[in-house]
User: Which sequence fits this backbone?
């Protein structure tokens, strides 16, 4: 990154320092570090310290940090017989906790804990779907017995969504497997589908699990939500700890309602400034992933705060947290506020208690972003961190546009796309596939009026623009899927997509070229047949 | 209950993104040096005591245990998954790994050192789960034996054409490469457990990567399908697909017989005893979390 670029960089990064004024550079931010490091008296933990509880800086004491190695006695896997270390021995009596740490603390019934500790947490909700459900169920039965019952039939949410509208026999069989299990166990929340020819004929069917979880009120502040899908982190938008796990872990949770998890250190992202009207949350997260790379947040929590975050709707917060895993993040999290409570109002009757990071909480690093300086972005093939501005890619000819998935197939995503198409008034130049995430989203596309359109619905605007008819709600071609999946990339084509990954072969063909983008950028690109900055239409 | 005090050396700042699991366990007093065959290792999953005594000893010897573990779940009931034995006396033999042989039940008998030997397959950075097992194959359920086998035939089939050598030959269920050498962030992307399962089903015994993505690492250890090891340097730049390698677990060493070079690996450290406990289920039973 050039010096000029650094000066114009919208990202300003605090690395932490110890109280003996020893500044530790965050290697992740080394590009901008030279001009952006500021000294801070807040008790940030060093990267070297992460996971090392006895060496956390006490706010009122200076500590000597070893330059190379820090030895520490390993602390506690918490088991019932273990005696806890006394608070005075941890050095963390007077320091605060991040909201993620607080959730772990409550869920593990430990008064205090620190990043790096493995603790048994009580799980509030376990989600699984048609791809990983059968395997998880297989493990559950093998380990707990064929006649075993799940720990709480109201806390398991089973949502078929991945490979639904296909003739693939195994895919169909997998839905049968989770149905059989749900009936046998009396699972309260199983969003079944039987009639594949008409999704509307299935009143229980929802669609994409992460959107359904939110819409059905299963996401609540302060809780622990685990799911057999990497984008379970989406639910962090509700101020809860939510992360993806595999079949074996899920099998364990099914039987016990507990999981052994390590407390992650937290990266804090402070986003301030008024959101420009050509930017969406997708641009924000692409900016961040491009900054810290696909492994920049591995094993860490990503906490999003600031005035911009506070201005985001729940769906936008979900988009933001959704792609945390693309940076390697363990979980994403946004503090619950009036927006959250309003969204939840008629959706859940389960009481919840939000948590918030203490002022003295320790963060691994803090990134400050001025959103007014950001441009609409894409992630170029073949990595979510291959960031470029949409404008830079204006000569990239495209073959198709895909609007859908948990990342970019929610109601507001379609409203955004419709807004750009409406502003243009023209027809799209390439096949434009619309895959609503859930039944509710599909309904909204056909019923909600688009602001400024004189009462037109999204569906009408899409039709007038020559887009494909919105299809049955599911994960669709975001991950390719069986060969007959609608909108799957089956030839080496270039696609602009509102989805979350663009690794080789992600949407089907190995040589497909996927540009990840916001719904604004996707719609703008559809109109020109090239990767296009939405300001070309929105201003 | 096996309980071990482990001192962890913290990693240099650049590697901070690697997992830092901590375990509190107490070591049994070391007895005669024992070594461990994979056969014993795998069967010790049915008999945790044998595996644990040697592994915890190794843990004790390696004071500089790099904190690179996940909690894990290995089913300790009948195996369709287990660490495959790779020991062969003839490095040029095409490897056909077998699921493990019968074990000795005598925990104090000496067994040969745990090692993996075979030809390696080298991949680059950020090999994501879609490349390891493309989504279209996820309809295969890993807990069903015949579908487990099929998953093996599709392992790494998603790699781009720039990888000229195919990992599994068309029509085969297993690879002739039993060790994968990779760059950074191996296994990034989806949480699909099918990924480490497909590799294990294809006969991969171990992966040596510069670093791992979180969920993949956790799933590898949980399933026991592959041994996820970490290298100190970028081994993927110095090895070529087809090189004959040996991994000596106890010495944390990778030896490339073709180039004559050897490399220090980060010790499996806490993952060893965790694997040996039999996985999350066995561990939970041992610690009283769930009834035995």
Assistant:
């Amino acid at each position: 990154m050039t010096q000029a670029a650094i000066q114009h960089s919208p990202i300003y990064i605090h690395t932490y320092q110890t109280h003996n004024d020893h500044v530790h550079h965050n290697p992740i931010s080394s590009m901008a570090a030279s001009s952006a490091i500021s000294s801070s008296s807040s008790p940030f933990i060093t990267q070297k310290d992460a996971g090392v509880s006895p060496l956390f800086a006490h706010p009122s004491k200076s500590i000597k940090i070893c330059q190379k190695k820090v030895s520490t006695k390993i602390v506690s896997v918490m088991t019932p017989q273990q005696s806890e270390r006394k608070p005075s021995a941890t050095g963390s009596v007077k320091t605060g906790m991040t909201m993620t740490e607080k959730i772990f603390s409550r869920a593990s019934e430990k008064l205090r804990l620190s990043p790096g500790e493995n603790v048994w947490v009580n799980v509030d909700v376990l989600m699984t779907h048609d791809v990983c459900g059968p395997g998880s169920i297989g493990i559950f039965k093998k380990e707990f017995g064929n006649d075993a019952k799940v720990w709480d039939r109201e806390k398991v949410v089973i949502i078929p969504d991945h490979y639904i509208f296909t003739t693939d026999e195994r895919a169909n069989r997998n839905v049968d497997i989770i149905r059989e299990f749900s009936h046998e166990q009396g699972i309260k929340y199983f969003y079944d589908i039987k009639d594949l020819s008409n999704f509307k004929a299935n009143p229980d069917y929802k669609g994409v699990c992460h959107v359904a979880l939110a819409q059905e009120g299963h996401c609540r502040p302060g809780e622990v939500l685990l799911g057999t899908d990497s984008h379970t982190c989406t639910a962090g938008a509700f101020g809860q700890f939510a992360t993806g796990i595999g079949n074996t872990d899920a099998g364990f949770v099914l039987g016990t309602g507990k999981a052994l998890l390590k407390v992650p250190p937290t990266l804090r992202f402070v986003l301030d400034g008024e959101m420009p009207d050509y930017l969406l949350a997708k641009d924000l997260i692409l900016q961040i992933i491009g900054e810290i790379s696909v492994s920049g947040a591995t094993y860490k929590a990503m906490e999003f705060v600031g005035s911009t975050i506070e201005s985001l709707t729940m769906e936008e917060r979900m988009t933001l947290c959704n792609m945390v895993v693309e940076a390697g993040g363990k979980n994403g999290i946004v503090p619950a506020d009036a927006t959250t409570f309003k969204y939840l109002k008629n959706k859940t009757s389960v009481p919840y208690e939000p948590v918030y990071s203490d002022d003295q909480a320790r963060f691994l690093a803090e990134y400050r972003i001025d959103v007014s300086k950001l441009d609409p972005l894409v992630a170029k093939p073949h990595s979510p961190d291959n960031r470029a501005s949409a404008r830079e890619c204006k000569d990239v000819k495209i073959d198709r546009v895909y609007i859908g998935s948990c990342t970019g197939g929610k109601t507001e995503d379609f409203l955004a796309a419709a807004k750009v198409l409406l502003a243009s008034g023209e027809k799209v130049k390439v096949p434009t596939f619309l895959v609503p995430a859930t039944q509710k989203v599909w309904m909204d596309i056909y019923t909600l009026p688009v602001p400024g359109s004189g009462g037109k619905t999204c569906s009408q605007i899409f039709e007038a623009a020559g887009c494909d008819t919105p299809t049955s709600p599911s994960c669709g071609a975001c991950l390719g899927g069986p060969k007959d999946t609608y909108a799957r990339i089956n030839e080496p084509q270039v696609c602009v997509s509102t989805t979350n990954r663009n690794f080789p072969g992600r949407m089907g063909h190995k040589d497909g070229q996927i540009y990840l983008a916001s719904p604004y950028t996707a719609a703008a690109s559809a109109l020109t047949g090239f990767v296009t900055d939405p300001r070309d239409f929105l201003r | 209950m096996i309980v071990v005090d482990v001192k962890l050396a913290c990693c240099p700042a650049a590697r901070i993104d690697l997992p830092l699991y901590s375990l509190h366990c107490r070591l049994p007093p070391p007895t005669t040096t024992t070594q461990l065959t994979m056969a014993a290792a795998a069967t010790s999953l049915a008999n945790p005591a044998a595996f644990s005594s040697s592994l915890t000893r190794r843990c004790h010897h390696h004071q500089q245990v790099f904190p690179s573990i996940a909690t894990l779940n290995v089913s300790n009931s009948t195996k369709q998954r287990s660490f495959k034995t790779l020991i062969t006396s003839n490095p040029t033999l095409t490897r056909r790994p077998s699921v493990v042989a019968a074990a000795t039940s005598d925990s104090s008998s000496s067994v040969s050192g745990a090692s993996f030997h075979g030809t390696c397959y080298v991949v680059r950075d950020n090999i994501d789960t879609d490349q390891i097992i493309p989504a279209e194959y996820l309809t295969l359920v890993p807990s069903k034996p015949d579908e487990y086998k099929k998953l093996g035939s599709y392992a790494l089939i998603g790699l781009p054409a720039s990888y000229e050598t195919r990992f599994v030959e068309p029509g085969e269920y297993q690879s002739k490469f039993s060790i994968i050498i990779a760059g950074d962030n191996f296994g990034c992307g989806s949480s699909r457990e099918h990924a480490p399962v497909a590799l294990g089903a294809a006969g991969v015994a171990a992966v040596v990567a510069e670093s791992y993505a979180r969920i993949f690492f956790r799933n590898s250890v949980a399933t026991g399908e592959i041994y996820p090891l970490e290298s100190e340097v970028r081994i993927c730049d110095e090895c070529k697909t087809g090189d004959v390698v040996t991994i000596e677990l106890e010495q944390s060493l990778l030896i490339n017989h073709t180039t004559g070079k050897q490399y220090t690996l980060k010790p499996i450290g806490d993952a060893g005893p965790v694997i040996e406990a039999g996985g999350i289920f066995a561990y939970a039973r041992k610690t009283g979390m769930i009834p035995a």
The first strand of chain B starts at residue 3 and ends at 4. Chain B has a mean pLDDT of 68. Chain B has two domains: 2-80, 83-281.
